[in-house]
Amino acid sequence: MEILPAERLELILEFIDDKGTVNIIDLTNKFNVSKPTILRDLKELEKQNLIIRIHGGAKSKKLKGTRFEPRHVIKEQEAIQEKEEIAQLAFKHIYSGETVLLDSGTTTLLLAKKLAAQCTENITAITNDIKNAMVLSENDLIDIVVVGGQKRKGVYSLNGPFAEDMLRQLNVDKVFLGTDAIDADKGLTNSNIDETNIKKTMMKIANEIILLADDRKFNQVAFSSVAGIDALDRIITNKPLSDAEMKEYKKAGISIDIPQAKN
C-alpha cells in the first residue's frame, strides 16, 4: 500500500531520529522514492525545525539523554499489543455513572475504542484529544465533553490556557493519564511543556489518578516534570516491574495492575 506524503514525513523523521545521521541514498532506498521527493521531504522537515540539513543528507535534532516525543502516527504503530492489554485492564476500572477523563495519547485512544465498543451503561467521558472524542461519539451511552484549546502539530491533543481553564471548572472520578516517561526518582516527565501543564491540571481535578504506561516508559526521563510518583493512585502496565521498582512504587502507595497471566 502506498504511503501518503504526510505519513512518509513522519516515518522519515523517525528514521532520522533513530539513526542520528542519514544520507540521501539511505532514504531513497528505505522509502522507495526518488531523490527529488526525499529532498522535498527534508526541506519540509527542516522548515518545521525537526531536523538539521547537512551536505548529502540530514541529522537528527533529538535531545540525547532524555526521551523525545514521536509523532502520533509513529506512536500508533509502537507496542500495539502491550497498549491493548493496558487498555483492557483500564476499561475494567470504569463503572456505571462515573465521570472519567481521558488524557491524549495512543493508549488512551485504545481505551476510548474499548469504551465505544463495549460500554453498556451511561458514563461521562471528558477528553482533550480530537481522536478520542471522535471514537467515543460512536456510542450514544457515553456523554462526551471535549476540552477546547490549541491543537499541537503532529498530534491530536488540545492544550493551552483555554483548555486548562475549562478543566479547572470540572471534577472527575478518575483520570486515565499517559506519560512519555516514568522514573521512581524523577517521577512522571513529558517531552512537551504544554502537555505537561494540562496533565498537571487533569491531576488536580481527579479523585483517582491512573497512569497507563507500557514497559518502555519505565526508568526513562523526559524534558519536563509533571509530578512525583506519589501523586499516582494506580499504574496499569503490561509487564511485571522489578522487585526494586515494585518496592519503590508500593512505598509511594501506588497499586500496580498487570495482565493476570503475567503476574
Q: Round the Cα radius of gyration to an integer and report it.
A: 19 Å
Whole-number mean pLDDT: 89
Q: Which stretches are poorly predicted, pLDDT < 50 over at least 5 residues?
A: none
Could you please say which CATH topology of the largest domain applies here? Rossmann fold
Form type: globular
What string, H for helix and E for strand, traces the elements in order?
HEHHEEHHEHEHEEEHEEEHEEEHE
Q: Helical residue percent?
A: 25-40%
The CATH architecture term of the largest domain is 3-Layer(aba) Sandwich
List keywords for this structure.
DeoR_HTH, transcription regulation, Rossmann fold, 15 strands, alpha/beta, 263 residues, globular, 7-stranded parallel sheet, DNA-binding transcription factor activity, 2 domains
Short description:
This protein is an alpha/beta fold and 263 residues long.
Folded structure, characterized:
- With 263 residues, the protein is an alpha/beta fold.
- The protein folds into two domains: 5-64, Winged helix-like DNA-binding domain superfamily/Winged helix DNA-binding domain (Arc Repressor Mutant, subunit A); 76-257, 3-Layer(aba) Sandwich (Rossmann fold), CATH 3.40.50.
- The chain is 38% helix and 22% strand.
- The protein is built from ten helices and 15 strands.
- The chain has helices at 5-19, 24-31, 35-47, 72-75, 80-91, 106-118, 130-136, 161-168, 193-204, 243-251; strands at residues 21-23, 51-54, 57-60, 99-102, 123-127, 142-146, 150-151, 158-159, 172-177, 181-183, 187-190, 206-212, 224-227, 234-236, 255-257.
- The strands form four sheets. It has a seven-stranded parallel sheet with strand order 6-5-4-9-12-14-15, sandwiched between helices. Strands 1-3-2 form a three-stranded antiparallel sheet. It has a three-stranded antiparallel sheet with strand order 10-11-13, covered by helices on one side.
- α10 links the parallel β14 (234-236) and β15 (255-257).
